[in-house]
Structure formats: structure tokens, C-alpha cells
Amino acid sequence: MLFEEKEELTLKDKLMKWFAGLFMTILVAMLIVTLLPNDAEQSLYRLLTGQDTHSAGKFGDETITMDYFQAAKRDCYSRYKESQQSNMDPSLLNECAYNTIKELKVNKLIAQAVGYDISENRIKELLFEQAKQIHKESSVSAGYSKEEQLSEKDIYRNLLQSTSLEYRKDVMLIYGLYSFLSIPFEESANLKAISVESENLKFHLNYVSFSEVDLLNQVEKDIKITEEELQTEYEKSQKEGTLPKNEKGEFPSLEERKPILYNKLKSEKKQTLVSQLKSQIQTLQNSKSKDILKQISQLTDSKIEEIKNISLKELTKPSANSKFYRFASNKAFLKDLTELPFDEGNVGGPYTEEDKTAYVEFKTFFFDNKEKQLQQQSYDSMKKMHQYILMEEIKQSIASKYPLYRKFDKRVE
């Protein structure tokens, strides 16, 4: 026969083919997922699990709901609408919203750590007060008829539905938290006495200060480059194959290379002499000479500065006559202040700040017996500044441990 009748597949054969097809489909899908970039793989996973459907991202393990994100976005729009005349870039609003959310979530963690919270009932009470105020103002000035006016309950319901209650709570937590942490505490008599005593403790110090540039300029006048040194450096570059060719493809002569070789040798000598100068200063400091600071001043060509009758608190500010150093902000200085005896010749250092280095002679200290009242306003201002700095450090530390997934930016920070 020309055509043979095909044999009908059994149920077993059909099942085998179905499972083989399913296995190949799964294998191909796994291969595709494996070859995807990491961020694309994560996006696909969030899409399949439904995490991207009703959320704007995550802060740590906490999902950012869309209504929470939209509330932050509306706040950003309200803040920027006065400064932005044209249509705002959506990406700018998203960036602001995510930054706002991060700030709120970090502060919420701090509030939880210190035991501060605001109940939802309190938030609802405030919203109802706001609704009553809106109703009162609309009744007086809006010119609506009684039928057109919304009742207090309707206004309250609209306010409640307009913004996520969780978002309102986190915003109120920030304001309440700062007030909570700013509650003044009563200082004990001992603490007040220590404060007054620290104000009355005075120091007499001498010091010299200089920068690396000052030292380089100081040694420059002693540098001399001979013809023999230039010749040796030229020949050395020829042997090492570091001598570059000129535009004609030829090696330049010694005369052509002299300016470059001179500057190179001069720079190397300056660095060597500065290192030797620093070693001399270190040797002087370790000696038992009574005029160490004077000798350091001569070596570095630096003027000896004098500070008299100054408190430790005042040492946190730049000296009026030198306009340079805040000694009490330096840990090494505070250590030497408590360990080195106050006497002629006792020199501590080096103390560095930015590009400056200082050596200090600890001469004398004494207590000023005159009663001095603490300036409460200045003290409170300083305390608030320290509190703000500490709070910012805590917030940065917490934020670094909780990654923020920005769904609309497709990135994690």
C-alpha cells in the first residue's frame, strides 16, 4: 500500500510527550532567568510575585504602599510649586518623594528606639479639629448656601481619605520627636560646678605652626643643582629608556632637556630636605632641651605665637592672633594636655588641622577665682547644635543599614 495507516498514540505515550514538553519549557525559562541581568531578574521576580503591583518600593523589609508614596509626592509638589513656574519633571518629584519617605522611615525607627509614639486616635482628633475650622471658615466667607456647604463630618471624611493615615502619623512623628528630644533637663549642682570650674581654668601656651608648603619654601633656598647632576640624570634616562623623543622622532639633547631635568631634581631634593627637617624636629622633641620650641621655630622659619589666660572652651575656636588652630578639637592635644607636665620646655605635637601642623609648649595653668556666670543663651544654643549634629549622625548610620528600593527609578540605594 502507498499509505500506511498511522498507529494511534497510547495514553502513556501522550503523557510522556506532555511531560517532556513541560520539562523543556521549564528548562528554557530557567536558562532565560539565569542569563538576565541582576536588576532585571529582581524586577521579574517582583512582577511574578505581585510585589510591584501595589507598591512603590521598599525601605528595608517594609513595603512602601502606593498611597503612601503619592502622599509624599503631593507634599513635594506643594513645596516646589511656588519655585517651579512650568510643568515639573516627574523624575524630580519621584526623587523628592523617595527622599522624603527615607527621612520619615529613619525618624520612625529613632522614635521607636526612644519609645516615642503618636496614636491614631490623636491624629483623628487633630483632623476633626481641622475639619471644624474649615467648616467654620467656609460658612463665614465662602458664600455658599447651607445646602451647598459640606458638614463637618463630610469634611473630616474627605481629609481622612485624602492622605494615608500612616503617612500622616510618620510626618507628625518627626515634629513630635524633635520636641520630645529637646525637652530640657535640670542640671545637678555638681554638673553646674564642673561647668563653672571648666570656665575658670585658664592656660598659658606657646606654639609654632606651619604647612607643608611653608617647609618646601623654607628648604628651597638651600637647593643647588649642578651641571654634573643634570648630566647624570640625562644619561640615566637614556639608559633606562625613559627619554622621550621630540616631534622629529629624535632624542632631545641635554640642553633641550635641562629645564625639565632641573625641575625634577629640584622637586626630589625639596622632598628629601623636608623629610630630613621633620626628622630633626622629631629628634629635638625627644631631647631634654629647654628651648625646643625656639629651635623648631628657627628650623621652620615660623614665628612663636603666645596664648594667655584662655579657657579650654575658648581653645575650641581659632586663636585671634594666629587665626589658625582649634587646639581643644584635637584628640592628641587633649591627651597631651592631661599627660604632659606644665613646665618650660615641655612641647607636644605634632597636631594637624587641614594643611597646618603645630607644636605646643605647655607653660602654665591656673584657676581664675572670679565668679563667672554661664551665659545660658549661648550654652543652650551650643547644646542644640550638638543635638542636631548627633541626630544627623544617627540618621545617616540608620539609613546606611536600610536599603531603599525605588521602584520607579529601578534602583536600590
Write structural notes for this entry.
With 413 residues, this protein is of the alpha+beta class. Helix content is 58%, strand content 12%. The protein folds into two domains: 45-183 and 375-405, Triger factor/SurA peptide-binding fold; 194-243 and 251-367, no CATH class. The chain has 14 helices and eight strands. Helix 4 packs across helix 7, helix 4 crosses helix 14 (376-401) and helix 5 (120-141) crosses helix 6 (152-162). Mean pLDDT is 75; it is low at 1-6, 37-43, 320-324 and 371-376.
- What count of helical segments does DSSP give? 14
Tell me the Rg in angstroms. Answer: 37 Å
Spatial order of the strands forming the largest sheet: 2-1-7-8
Query: What is the N-to-C order of secondary-structure elements (H for helix, E for strand)?
Result: HHEEHHHHHHEHHHHEHEEHEE
Count of domains:
2
Pairing-aware structural class of the strands and helices? alpha+beta
CATH topology grouping of the largest domain:
Triger factor/SurA peptide-binding fold
Q: Strand portion, in percent?
A: 5-15%
By CATH, the architecture of the largest domain is named: Orthogonal Bundle
**Major beta sheet summary:** 4 strands, antiparallel
Q: What overall form do the CA principal axes indicate?
A: flat
Distance between the termini: 74 Å
- What is the top-level CATH class of the largest domain? Mainly Alpha
